[in-house]
């Protein structure tokens, strides 16, 4: 009669423990990589948005600075212009400055309205997987599109442009 091994022998128990620990470590490594990649992707997305916002602000600042050097030139021209022409040039410059300030204020109001309009769900504040991140990004894009349409239709408090 052949001798059967006892499945509960010490070597089998140690083998099972070793395999379970190895599998557990492998799964921990995979989950850690997925989470790290998800947060890296989110961070890159946030950085891209911040860069876009910074670029927009810098463009407006450059535009405002480009208008400032025009003022001394306008003053210099006013010496050769008639009083009426000088007054008209000053009015145009004041109108440009007011328009820029109105645009900046309108953008601020629009950003504030967006913050009130879109509040991400808890699951989207800290997505746990790339799939969740994609779902949340898609949802935010749909809400942004709806918001832009409604903003253009004047459904939110905004100054008359």
UniProtKB/TrEMBL annotation:
Biased composition regions of type Polar residues, renumbered to the chain: 73-82
Transmembrane segments: 12-31
Region Disordered, residue ranges: 60-99
Origin superkingdom: Bacteria
Assigned keywords, A-Z: Membrane, Transmembrane, Transmembrane helix
Record's protein name: Uncharacterized protein
């Amino acid at each position: 009669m052949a001798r059967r091994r006892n499945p509960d022998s010490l070597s089998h128990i140690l083998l099972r423990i070793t395999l379970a620990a190895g599998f557990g470590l492998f799964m921990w490594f995979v989950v850690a990589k997925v989470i790290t990649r998800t947060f890296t992707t989110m961070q890159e997305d946030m950085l891209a948005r911040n860069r876009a916002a910074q670029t927009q602000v810098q463009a407006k600042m450059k535009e405002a600075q480009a208008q400032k050097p025009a003022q001394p030139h306008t003053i210099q021209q006013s010496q050769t212009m008639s009083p009426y022409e000088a007054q008209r040039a000053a009015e145009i410059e004041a109108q440009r400055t007011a328009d820029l300030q109105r645009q900046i204020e309108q953008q601020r109001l629009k950003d504030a309205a967006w913050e009130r309009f879109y509040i991400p769900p808890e699951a989207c504040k800290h997505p746990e997987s790339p799939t969740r991140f994609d779902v949340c990004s898609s949802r935010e894009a749909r809400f942004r599109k709806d918001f832009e349409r409604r903003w253009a239709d004047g459904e939110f408090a905004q100054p008359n442009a």
